[in-house]
């Protein structure tokens, strides 16, 4: 089963690399290693979806800042187990928003699918958590940087508090996710 996920990851990376070479009408803005494709206004009906390479994602969410506690979930619109567990992350965000906990949903969809798949998906599912897109074709570098034991399969989740990381390569129910969060609160 792990070999299938690794093969899918390799195909994903190869397609992402080939898609990155195509010219698009997208406007790109790069600041501090963070690339934002088609900057979106961020209204409730048209949420902003920043696009990061791994270095910028790590600096933004994985650096030892102390605050807040980040629950970072790697997912994609095409991943059925990911989609199934998203309500658990949304419920966690709603319940713990005033307790310095922030859920970050890191989409692994292709950057050219932001407007056609990711934005409609967010609207259809009513996602309120922060959604960002990871666009870094060097998966062989960033996957082990997230966790050395990660095969690259999704869904995957990292809970971070004061530099401490807990990594999970699995799906969660709300109760399971809340129990893991409570164990580090």
Give descriptors for this structure.
alpha/beta; eight-stranded mixed beta sheet; Glutaredoxin; globular; disordered N terminus; 185 residues
Give an account of the 3D structure.
This protein is of the alpha/beta class and 185 residues long. It has one domain (2-182): Glutaredoxin. Helix content is 40%, strand content 22%. It has helices spanning 2-20, 54-62, 80-96, 114-125, 139-146, 174-182, and strands spanning 28-31, 34-37, 51-52, 69-75, 101-107, 130-134, 156-161, 164-168. The chain has an 8-stranded mixed beta sheet. Strand 5 (101-107), helix 4 (114-125) and strand 6 (130-134) form a beta-alpha-beta unit. Helix 3 packs across helix 6 (174-182). It is globular, with a radius of gyration of 16 Å. The N and C termini lie far apart (34 Å). 25% of the residues are buried. Mean pLDDT is 80; it is low at 2-46.
């Amino acid at each position: 089963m792990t070999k299938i996920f690794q093969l899918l990851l390799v195909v994903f990376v190869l397609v992402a690399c080939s898609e990155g070479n195509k010219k698009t009408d997208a406007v790109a803005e790069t600041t501090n290693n963070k690339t934002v494709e088609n900057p979106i206004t961020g209204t409730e009906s048209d949420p902003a979806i920043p696009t990061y390479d791994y270095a910028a994602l790590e600096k933004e969410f994985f650096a030892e800042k102390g605050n807040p506690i980040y629950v970072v979930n790697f997912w994609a619109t095409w991943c059925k187990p990911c989609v199934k567990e998203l309500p658990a992350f949304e419920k966690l965000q709603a319940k713990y928003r005033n307790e310095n906990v922030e859920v970050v949903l890191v989409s692994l969809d292709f950057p050219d699918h932001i407007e056609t798949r990711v934005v409609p998906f967010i609207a259809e599912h009513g996602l309120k958590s922060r959604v960002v897109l990871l666009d870094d074709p060097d998966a062989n570098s960033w996957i082990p940087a997230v966790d050395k034991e990660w095969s690259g399969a999704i869904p995957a989740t990292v809970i971070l508090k004061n530099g401490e990381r807990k990594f999970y390569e699995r799906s969660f129910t709300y109760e399971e996710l809340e129990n893991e969060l409570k164990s580090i609160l």
